[in-house]
């Protein structure tokens, strides 16, 4: 994981902990639903937080690509960060 990914990963972990719960063992390969127990409403809350934190909207067609923490980190680095 590059330094850029590492910074984004830490921020994503922080947001996930705030939205879901702070006792989760969040790893880069963690699946939002299967590993972290996120439900649909949780995922929507997470997406809103990511948009707020990074200042750009995530198009609806990109949402199905964001299944794991790693997918989210890569997506943010490629699309949301300046």
Structure description:
The protein has helices at residues 3-19, 40-54, 69-80. By secondary structure, the protein is mainly alpha-helical. The protein has one domain (1-78): ACP-like (Non-ribosomal Peptide Synthetase Peptidyl Carrier Protein, Chain A, Orthogonal Bundle). Helix 1 crosses helix 2 and helix 1 (3-19) packs across helix 3 (69-80). The longest helix is centred in the first third of the chain and has 17 residues, at 3-19. The protein is globular and about 30 Å long. The model has no long low-confidence stretch (mean pLDDT 92).
Condensed summary:
The two termini are 19 Å apart. By secondary structure, the protein is mostly helical.
Task: Provide tags for this entry.
single chain, 82 residues, mainly alpha, Non-ribosomal Peptide Synthetase Peptidyl Carrier Protein, Chain A, 0% strand, globular
Describe the secondary-structure layout:
Layout: H1 3-19, H2 40-54, H3 69-80
Helix pairs in contact: 1-2, 1-3
What fraction of the residues are assigned to beta strands by DSSP?
A: under 5%
Reported by name, the CATH topology is Non-ribosomal Peptide Synthetase Peptidyl Carrier Protein, Chain A
Unreliable stretches, pLDDT < 50, 5 or more residues?
none
Straight-line N-to-C gap: 19 Å
CATH level-1 class: Mainly Alpha
- The CATH superfamily turns out to be ACP-like
Number of DSSP-assigned strands: 0
**Total domains:** 1
Reading the helices and strands in chain order gives HHH
At CATH level 2, the architecture is Orthogonal Bundle
| Overall morphology | globular
In helices, the fraction of residues equals 40-55%
Category from helices, strands and their pairing: mainly alpha
Largest β sheet strand count, sense and barrel closure: none
- Number of helical regions: 3
pLDDT average, as an integer?
A: 92
Using the CA coordinates, give the radius of gyration.
11 Å
């Amino acid at each position: 994981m590059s330094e850029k990914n590492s910074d984004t990963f830490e921020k994503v972990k922080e947001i996930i902990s705030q939205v879901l719960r702070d006792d989760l063992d969040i790893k880069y390969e963690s699946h939002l639903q299967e590993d972290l127990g996120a439900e649909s409403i949780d995922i929507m809350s997470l997406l809103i937080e990511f948009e707020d934190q990074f200042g750009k909207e995530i198009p609806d067609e990109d949402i199905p690509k964001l299944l794991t923490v790693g997918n989210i980190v890569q997506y943010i680095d490629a699309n949301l960060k300046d």
